[in-house]
Design goal:
Heat Shock Protein 90, alpha+beta, 5 strands, 133 residues
Length: 133
């Protein structure tokens, strides 16, 4: 089963929650498994809120593409350049619960995505692509 969903998020947590709900409904309509839906919702929250808050992006565009082998999510924003694929991970010796806020998102992103890439486009956009399978 294939399909594409495009979302644009501006604002804050209320708008992110609306995007999460739209993505979940779209995935459910395509018979995605509950685990994929939950992971997608969590990653949308992490990536978008961080781009809006820390990256000072005004909006984040999300493109979701589903295929038989999984779900591809692409996030684009014009905020401050930041490559989460190469940023240092926090020390996990005490477990994820002991990581201070500000590092957990990187850990979740890298653990949940089966493929992950970042590029700064010639247009000055951050483009984060990830696959969930």
């Amino acid at each position: 089963m294939t399909g594409v969903l495009a979302l644009r998020v501006e604002g804050g947590s209320a708008e992110v929650a609306e995007a999460q709900a739209a993505l979940a409904a779209w995935l459910e309509a395509g018979d995605a498994d509950p685990r994929t839906i939950a992971r997608a919702e969590l990653l949308v929250e992490e990536v978008v809120l961080n781009a809006l808050k820390h990256g000072r992006a005004r909006e984040v565009r999300i493109t979701a593409t589903r295929a038989d082998e999984g779900l591809d999510l692409v996030f684009e924003d014009a905020g401050i350049a930041f490559d989460p694929t190469s940023a240092a991970l926090p020390d996990l010796d005490g477990g994820l619960e002991e990581v201070e806020i500000g590092g957990r998102g990187l850990v979740l992103l890298r653990k949940m995505a089966t493929a992950l890439s970042y590029a700064r486009t010639p247009e000055g956009l951050n483009r984060l692509s990830l696959t969930l399978s």
